[in-house]
């Protein structure tokens, strides 16, 4: 059975809501860290999300891939930017990264049509 990155991110979002309710301080701290790390500075938020996608691929995290592809689409990342990021992932991570780079392509292709209609 093929996985759906839309479904993965929906399911994980639901579980994260539970964590926010039951562990609010931890989740607020994580949210603050994410906000601080991703804000524009010497690197743009888009560039930082591309880095995050690269880490998600090399760490083999399906949910992370889904969330960062979704964020990249909302920031207007081009297919070319995403594909070049995945090329660097493959270069640095070898065969296992290549397999998850392919998963990121699947996530992009699943989510991109929704981004244009949302």
Helix content: over 70%
DSSP E strands, number: 0
Largest sheet: none
Strand content: under 5%
Total individual domains: 1
How many alpha or pi helices? 5
Mean pLDDT equals 95
Alpha-carbon Rg, integer:
14 Å
Q: What is the oligomeric state here?
A: single chain
What are the SSEs and their pairings?
Elements: H1 5-22, H2 24-38, H3 45-58, H4 62-74, H5 79-117
Helix pairs in contact: 1-2, 1-4, 3-4, 3-5, 4-5
Description:
- It is globular, with a radius of gyration of 14 Å.
- Helix 1 (5-22) packs across helix 2 (24-38).
- With 118 residues, it is mainly α.
- The protein has one domain (5-117): AhpD-like (Up-down Bundle), CATH 1.20.1290.
- The model has no long low-confidence stretch (mean pLDDT 95).
- 84% of the residues lie in helices and 0% in strands.
- One of its GO terms (molecular function) is peroxiredoxin activity.
- Keywords: Oxidoreductase, Peroxidase.
- InterPro entries: AhpD-like, AhpD_core, CMD-like.
- Pfam families: CMD.
- This is Alkylhydroperoxidase.
